[in-house]
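Hey all, quick one. A colleague (J.T.) asked me to put the cytidine-5'-triphosphate job into the tracker so the inputs and the structure tokens live in one place instead of scattered across chat threads. No bug as far as I know, just bookkeeping. Sequence used:
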Amino acid sequence: MSVLNGKKILLGVSGGIAAYKTASLVRLFIKAGAHVQVIMTPASKDFVTPLTLSTLSKNPVYSSFFNQDDEDAVWNNHVDLALWADLMIIAPATANTLSKMTTGNCDNLLIATYLSAKCPVYFAPAMDLDMYKHPSTLSSFAALKQFGNVMIPAESGELASGLSGEGRMAEPENIIAFLEADLESKLPLKGKKILITAGPTYEAIDPVRFIGNHSSGKMGFDIAHEAANLGAEVILVSGPTHYKAKNSLVKVVDVISAQDMYDACHLYFNDVDVAIAAAAVADYRPKVVALQKIKKAADDFSIELEKTKDILASLGAIKKNQFLIGFALETENEIENAKLKIQKKNLDLIVLNSLQDEGAGFKKETNKVTFIDHNFEIEPMELKSKESVAVDILNKVILHFSKS
Ligand code: CTP
């Protein structure tokens, strides 16, 4: 999945012949799953029509501060447009527009929106080769980079003037590749490896029966998905569940029993930066697994159980620099029990679920958690979707790495 998926992109088009290429650019953004709004300078409309970009972006295209054609003029709010965007790209960026961006000369909607934007801004220059090398243009590039804007360099080739050289706007495919690479390199968990456990475990009684629990695996899969969106490489060790990983950065290791999960976790743990134990691991398993299906005979039947290994505690016992997060599902004396688990399992953070909270627990779409860190700082959170809880957990991970 492209890192542009779900991103809100504001495309500013200025008046150069390369503006015709923005039709392909908008199409590629949409194909990547982005939401696109377009602002055009008046001059750019000579090169590509607003109708083309509106049709492709599936949104109205803006080019002036108010809609002149409307009887009751409607103001196009440049601040709203700028705040809507996750990223803004000015392509093509002519020498004139670049210069106005550096001085704040906002005589059109595009520059006013640029000045209001708080999101990352990219610009893809397009001009003739001598203009591209002129000290005035070079000083615009330098000033914009100084502002924190990112330049997508022009390419070499035949130019509208008939001359050949540097100055062609980067091809739409290359702009997409540039944005994806740049955004990926800046993701907060880029370069981090995270081990996550999810789902229930099934402990065999005989070849057809097992002891299990109602965990759906959703919480662990949501954490894995969110971690991958933030750039992390994820190893998701999951018990039986119908969930599938949605991101190629998530490697799913399917397991069945607590022992399988233990073995898989120990295979990867040394190599990871973070481990998050969201699985509902069976605490006990049948001491003996019958080789054949157990036939019904006596009126009473009992199974002798033995303890499974505590995977999280075993990871806590060998951890070096790994940031270790556990879950605690409690029904009474929640905070005290959770604090004990932090100590017993050598955790950095525990995510406490209380079954006394409505909306929390197994087979629910929502969760209400309280974070407790190793210093016993307690932070109760609101009832939220499990996706939002996953975001909160990963924010704790990001915070940890920002301090270390
Ligand atoms: N856990 C684990 N291995 C086990 C049991 C639990 O890794 N054999 C992990 C869970 O994934 C969770 C945490 O330990 O992150 C706490 O699980 P919980 O069931 O709340 O606590 P237990 O330690 O099993 O203790 P108890 O059931 O007595 O509350």
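Adding what we noticed when we looked at it: The chain is about 35% helix and 25% strand. Residues 351 and 371 are 5 Å apart (CA to CA).
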